[in-house]
Amino acid sequence: MVEIELDGKKVEVAPGSMVMDAANKLGTYIPHFCYHKKLSIAANCRMCLVEVEKAPKPMPACATPVSPGMVVRSHSDKAVAAQKSVMEFLLINHPLDCPICDQGGECQLQDLAVGYGKGESRYNEEKRVVTPKEAGPLISMEEMSRCIQCTRCVRFGQEVAGVMEFGMLGRGEHSEITTFVGKTVDSEVSGNMIDLCPVGALTSKPFRYSARPWELQRRKSVSPHDSLGTNLIVQVKGGKVMRVLPLENENINECWLSDKDRFSYEALDNADRLINPMIKQGGEWIETDWKTALEYVAHGIRNIRHEHGADSIAAVATAHSTVEELYLLNKAMRGFGVNAIDFRLRQSDFALDGAVTPWLGMPIAELSNLKRAFVIGSFLRKDHPLVATRLRQAVKGGAKLSILHGSDEDNLIPTANKIIAAPTDWLAALSEIVSAVAASKETAAPAGFENVQAGGAAKAIAASLVAIDGDVAGAVLLGNSVLHHPEASKIHAAAQWIANATGAKFGYFVEAANTVGGHLVGATSNTDLFSVPKKAYVLLNAEPELDAANPQQALAALKGAEMVVAMSPFKHGMDYADVLLPISPFSETAGTFVNCEGRAQSFNGTVKPLGETRPAWKVLRVIGNLLGLQGFEYETAESIRDEALGKGVLDHSDKLNNIAKLSPSAASRSEESGSQGSGALQRIADVPIYFADAIARRSEPLLRTADANAPLVRLPSQLAEQLGVKAGDTVLVPAYHSPSMIPPVLWREAAPVFYRVGPDARVDLDDLAAKIDARTRAVMVTHYFGFAQDMAPIRALCDARGIALVEDCAHAFIGEHAGQPLGSWGDYAIASSMKFFPIYEGGALVSKTRSLDKVRVHSAGAGFEAKALLNSLERGFAYGRLPGVQAALWLPLRAKSALWGMLKRGRKTPAKSLAPDSSDSSFNFDPRWLDKRSSLFARSMLTLASPARIQALRRSHYERLDAALRGLPGIRPLHAQLPDGACPWVFPLLADDPETLFARLKAAGVPLTRFGHPLWQGMDADTCPNAAMLSRRVLSLPCHQELRESEVDWLVQAVRKAVLA
Questions:
Q1: How many other C-beta atoms can be found within 10 angstroms of the C-beta atom of residue 586?
Q2: Close Cβ partners of 481 (under 8 Å, ≥ 6 residues apart)
């Protein structure tokens, strides 16, 4: 240890420590801006200058190493004079905007200016101004003139987040912090840079100008999201959560917070909140009081048990529920004879139930000190952001990280060894590592592993895990994807053997805030609750359509149930639930979460429940009493916690166990075994970071981030080469488009590039030509609303550049341009017959110049054929067409509906879809339907229908609408006139106030559409202002051939009334 004297006090610190460390140990405050205990030393603010005896000038305390006998004075006249000079220098260009600054009241610069700043400035020159920057939906960079270039934000990105998203440009007075050109800040822990900023340069965009810090009440809480159990400070004003900040806890979250924990509070006041009990009667939802709703629930559950038995009831929860909630749900259901209870909705292998109670297997803080780690099946950064920061810290300290996963995720952590394998090959990869570890340790491999040959990567992982120098801290850690794996127990057994053989700790990251707590209270059963449908379901914080391993199966089971009770803070399940009970989110209730290390952390509500919302433990207590059960006389959440976990017990690690009595089983890779999986595609899907729970998936700021973009299908590079598409190829797509146009491009692993259109949706030929480059494979051109593009120059441009032209005739199945049929200008044309003919499905691929002989299509089956016919008829009946046919088919159709409902209720597994989602107005793209032929009914209609009749009637209806509506205030037709040869799909109307008009027309029952609303994620006004304008302002009215004269008259009157209202 080194002893120094600081302000007359002796202190000992470790060799290599800085003067600032000695001051911190003594509790002596030295003013500073750039210094932070978790970041590297920059010493560029100079605010921490101190006087060091025998030194010729003041020295920065943060960057001056201690030496034996050093004498330091932090508050001497010389030190204070230097500190005041630095403060004067920092304030030269700082704007005097404290009264409107969000940082005011908690600003480090403001506080130090009081003690070290002058009463008036000697600087009379013009202050510099820094241009505002755009950093994304979470961080505001509107007032960068306040920045003092401390570089905390830059260092945080490099050292903690693992990605440099901020940097400094310029020199001297011209220095400024900025993002990379055209990039936003997308790190999952980016919000910490707001806390680190000592001035008001980086502020919270959602919190901006909403409250002053001194108006806020501060209350402690615990994160309801991932398994870390992050400690929070919830700041409240007027009964509303205004902001969430980290509560420092070195053993758990240090001083950091993930963006999910920080910004998810925006969902707590979401319009989607359920604030009154609701009951469905006659297909309609009505609000009711708690007494009626709870008696209805108790009566319904009691009747179902009486008629079908307790085995016909299931309780479904999530691990985001508190210990108290899960304990009472479990107690109530089991007391009523119901044993089907679980919160592990994404799990499919239950072989370890009763043998393992999963947990981290070590204190969280130990992750930072590991020297070797093997992580299996984890989207590490997104599933556990703050665990990733600790492992990143460990690797910086010399640890070796090895990964086994299904996709090559960029964890932003230097990785020593990596095996990327299909999920079905994870056990085979672990088998190789088992064999390699046994060889390295010169011990016998488990039975069955004698013939397993380890590859190079497996040997490297084994070598990194085997402790050569004795007791080296190591861990084998299983991620969420292992828990979700259908062979989770076999993977567990192999990983457990590796950990035991190498002396490493063994554990699970576990999935959510209270996964461990759910296991401790026994809220589990060893089966999938939806594989065998039940007659009744009780849902606690669960949204199975988003939370279950098999959402289609879960939905089928819920829709087939006689009664579904949904307890949730949000409105959901309106199509399958029978009762909605509004329960409090974590901010409005008291409860306990047990984190991944087995630490129980209790918290109280921070605001009063919204509306008629009630804490779930109170709701379950009343249900228990109404069901006639004993032991439901609880008065407080604490009494439930004490009964569930034991009074005063915080550490529950002694009750947790990762060790199963299982022998590992060997497996070989699919290409070696010749199994059915060889060469087959396997889907690897994560649970997106902001879609993992009900609160996060409703936070608007989080849903505007890059991590909340719509999921994309990506292909391995080898498969893409087989398909003839190279990574980096592009397809030019109009900026004004349907979102359904983009997924097929991405499916081929090409990239869409948007070209501009004019205010009338005409192709901007100059911009199209400018965007063609060596990577461009094709151009897509859309004939919007049946109005043809000027195809001759576009055809000439594509021929000159040697690229394919694809005509999108979805709006123009019939029509011509310059005497030539639409669809004959391109190398290929695609069309949607269902937009022009009274059919349920159907499309076309045609080519005038290319052979389509290699395109093979076949029937999608009898179920599809029947559905195509019946849906077309039923849609006609819904609009009052074919009354004679409807009368004749009334009884068969009713029988069909009853039989179909009975089949769905009795089905144990979900059926394959009978038709593509696009037939039901979805933008989804499913490549399984690429080789399926249109139905016989649809093809017959195309043969029998008269194109001339269709075109004549559509033109007539269009012209009637044009004549009647032209000149009305606030609207105008998109096109000045209807060209000869055009067959309009709809009548496109340009509205000055589209939202108001749309709402009025929908309320009046007008069947209108909004093409291109919304556009694909990332296509905004900066890319093409006209496309953004058209997407927002164009409303389309029907003008199809089957409209009656009276219907056209009604349509005109409805529009006139809405416009003139």
A1: 27
A2: 377, 378, 379, 405, 406, 423, 686
Q: Both 875 and 989 in a single domain?
A: no
Q: 3-state DSSP helix/strand/coil percent for the chain, to nearest 5?
A: 35, 15, 45
Q: Roughly what angle, to the nearest 10 degrees, separates helices 108-116 and 77-91?
A: 130
pLDDT per residue as tens digits for the range 449-482: 989 999 999 999 999 998 655 567 899 999 999 9
Domain assignment present for 670: no
Q: Are strands 1034-1038 and 284-287 parallel, antiparallel or unpaired?
A: unpaired
Residues with Cβ within 8 Å of residue 268, at least 6 apart in sequence: 241, 569, 585, 587, 588, 610, 695
Q: How far lies 396's CA from each of 2, 160, 183, 371, 951, in Å? A: 26, 10, 27, 10, 70
Determine the pLDDT at residue 565.
97
CATH code of the domain containing 163: 3.30.70.20
Residue 323 has pLDDT above 80, yes or no: yes
C-alpha to C-alpha distance for 992 and 1021, rounded to whole angstroms: 17
Residue 405: CATH number of its domain: 3.40.228.10
Identify the H or E element spanning 797. helix 791-801
Which residues, 6 or more positions from 888, have their beta carbon under 8 angstroms from its beta carbon? none
- In this structure, what are the phi and psi dihedrals at residue 452, rounded to the nearest 5 degrees? -80, 125
Q: Is residue 422 located within the same domain as residue 442?
A: yes
Residues 875 and 1001 occupy one common structural domain: no
CATH number at residue 780: 3.40.640.10
Of 596, 355, 380, nearest to 489 by C-alpha is 355
Do residues 502 and 465 lie in contact, with contact meaning Cβ atoms separated by under 8 Å? yes
Torsion of CA 724, 727, 731, 735, to 10 degrees: 150
> Are 743 and 760 in the same domain?
yes
Per-residue pLDDT tens for 268-284? Answer: 998 899 999 999 998 89
Say what the pLDDT of residue 910 is. 41
Q: Are 383 and 546 in contact (CB under 8 A)?
A: no
Give the number of other Cβ atoms within 10 Å of residue 916's Cβ. 19
Whether residue 275 is contained in a domain is answered as no
Could you tell me what percent of the chain has a pLDDT over 70? 90
The tally of domains found in the chain comes to 5
pLDDT tens digits, 7-51: 999 999 999 999 999 999 999 999 999 999 999 999 999 999 999
State whether 830 and 852 are in the same domain.
Answer: no
Q: How far apart are CA 216 and CA 238, in angstroms?
A: 9
Average pLDDT of the chain? 89
Neighbours of 442 (CB within 10 A): 6
Q: At what angle do helices 883-906 and 551-560 cross, to 10 degrees?
A: 110
**Which amino acid, residue 260?**
K
DSSP annotation string for 648-717:
T--B-GGG-B------------HHHHT-TTTT---------GGGSSTTGGG-HHHHTSGGGSPP-----H
- Which of 171, 204, 237 marks a domain boundary? 204
**Domain ends where: 509, 540, 565?**
509
Same domain as 887, residue 753: no
Question: Token pair for residue 859?
Answer: 């029937």
Residues 962 and 1048 in one domain: yes
Q: From the CB of residue 612, how many other CB atoms can be counted at a distance below 10 Å?
A: 16
* Residue 159 within a domain: yes
Instruction: State the residue range of the domain holding 837.
Output: 717-845
For residues 936 and 959, state if they share a domain.
no
233 belongs to a structural domain: no
Strands of the 986-991 sheet, one edge to the other = 971-973, 986-991, 1034-1038
Q: How far apart are CA 797 and CA 169, in angstroms?
A: 41
pLDDT tens readout for residues 185-223: 999 999 999 999 999 999 999 999 999 999 999 999 999
Q: Does 713 score more than 70 pLDDT?
A: no
Q: How far is CA 504 from CA 248, 464, 496, 1000, in A?
A: 29, 11, 9, 66
